[in-house]
Amino acid sequence: MRMSLATIALLLSTVAAAQDVSLPDYERVVLDNGTVLLMAEKRDVPLIGMQAVVRGGTASDPADHAGMASLLAAILEKGAGDRDAATFAEASAAVGGSISASADMESITVMADFLSRDTELMIELVADMVMRPTLSEDQFRKEQQRSIALLQAAKGSNPRALVGSYANAFLFGDHPYGNPPYGSESSLAEITHAELVEHYRANFGGDRLIVAVVGAFDVAAMRAKLTDVFGGWPAAAGQADSIAAPERLSGRHVLLVDKPGSAQTYFMIGNVGVAIDYPRRAELQLANTLFGGRFTSMLMTALRTESGLTYDARSIVSRYSAAGPVFISSYTQTATTVAAVDLAIEKLGALHRRGFSEDMIASARNYIMGQFPPTLETAGSLANMLAYLELNGLGRDYIDAYGTALAAATPVSLHNAISEVYPSMDDLVIVLIGDAEAIREAVTKYGPVTEVSITEPRFRFYQ
Question: How many CA within 13 A on the CB side of residue 319?
Fold first, then answer.
């Protein structure tokens, strides 16, 4: 197939842009206790970004205690070292810095951005949060009640925020990737303060820690400081979890979450995809951009622009140390539920049958290369990327060779990625939140239906 002049121009501009996207030089040090230090100088502005990443996140939540990691991350911010919650917050705010914690699928991360003149304070605060959190029972109770209240509020007014939790739980069953990230009403209520403290003790330690720092500093001095601060932290008391590869489901499985009187149906359609080390990453990113990753994607064009069935339709590919989920996600009026779901599944079939042309791929390349460089521009974003690569066992080629891999992708290589990653039309998990009375009979066409009420205080309902 001959490429058009426009395609050639886009390809050349992508290759040129790719040559400018690479990681800076950085130093990697493994301390005697297992802590990994990653340090890079960036002196264009007097700022410094720091990330302290502890391996193990929501996938490591104990059985029936989903939400433990998210609760723990939330109260890491509520006092540490000699500072109570208010004093701790004031310490960073007083110098214009920011510090926060969050839980992801396979890590808990403390993120900090400060002026370089306040480096000592930043390191002190991060170290206190990670190694010496107060974990007060009062703060635990407040966050526990707040988390339950937020879930209950979402069930009433924002079910779209919950459809992913239902979908992952239904797809993965009792696999760790099925843990609802913020827990459920029942799982959160069952967590005790003593259990949270024990979870911290079992999962936080020097052998689980990655510290990435980027900014205006001297690497040798930073190495000495971080070694002094983190090098004596003992190993976590518990054993690190290993995550087995989940299996894709065969056939169709439908979960209908009944929200009586709902004017809309929120739905996700998908199956298990691939892991973080999937070799056709560039092709997958191109395919997902074209299928459902931007406003002009196949899904948006079909479900919004041409049919008016929704305002938003997207495809989501999540990759972890083991295979994560691949989903189509959208919503529509109750009366058009079947029309929207049918069209989404039809477009999935078209993705497999037709793939994408050279011109479409060139357009997606340019889009990605326009979005990608800004993710590496600031000290904080670079620290985040260094920590991400270390956490996932990825080398710097993951960034440095990315543009070249995008430029090398072809319709054939994209077709191979689509075949390997996206589920067939016959093997689908379909999760819907809507008025069951109005759509129950119609959605039986998609397969055996498991029906539950949105008032149920949990997300896990196995196939």
Answer: 17
Q: Output the CA–CA distances (angstroms, integers) from residue 380 to 20, 99, 115, 374, in the order listed.
A: 19, 11, 11, 12
Order across the sheet with 449-453: list the strands. Answer: 313-317, 325-333, 264-272, 428-434, 252-258, 449-453
- pLDDT reading at 13 higher than 50: no
Q: Answer whether 42's CB lies under 8 Å from 430's CB.
A: no
Instruction: Indicate whether 461 pLDDT > 80.
Output: no
Average the pLDDT over 21-32 and give the result: 94
Q: Which option is the CATH number for 18-230: 3.40.50.720, 3.30.230.10, 3.30.830.10, 3.40.800.10?
A: 3.30.830.10
Q: What type of residue sits at position 85? A: A
* pLDDT tens, position by position, 397-453: 999 999 999 999 999 999 999 999 999 999 999 999 999 999 999 999 999 999 999
**Beta pairing, strands 209-215 & 252-258:** unpaired
Domain ranges (residues) in the chain: 18-230, 252-453
**Of 425, 434, 427, which Cα lies nearest the Cα of 330?**
434
CA distances from 334 to 155, 158, 260, 435, 455 (A): 17, 15, 11, 7, 19
Q: Report residue 463's pLDDT band, with 50, 70 and 90 as the boundaries.
A: low
First-to-last alpha carbon distance for the chain, in angstroms, is: 45
Give the Cα separation of 301 and 344 in Å (integer). Answer: 11
Domains 18-230 and 252-453 share a fold: yes
Neighbours of 131 (CB within 10 A): 19
Q: What is the DSSP letter of 80?
A: B
Distance CA 439, CA 256 (A): 9
DSSP 178-231: GS-TT--HHHHHH--HHHHHHHHHHH-SGGGEEEEEEESS-HHHHHHHHHHHHT
pLDDT digits (tens, 9 = 90+) for 378-401: 999 999 999 999 999 999 999 999
Q: How far is CA 290 from the centre of its chain?
A: 20
Is CATH 3.40.1010.10 what the domain over 252-453 is classified as, yes or no?
Answer: no
Question: Hey, what are 307's tokens?
Answer: 């049919």
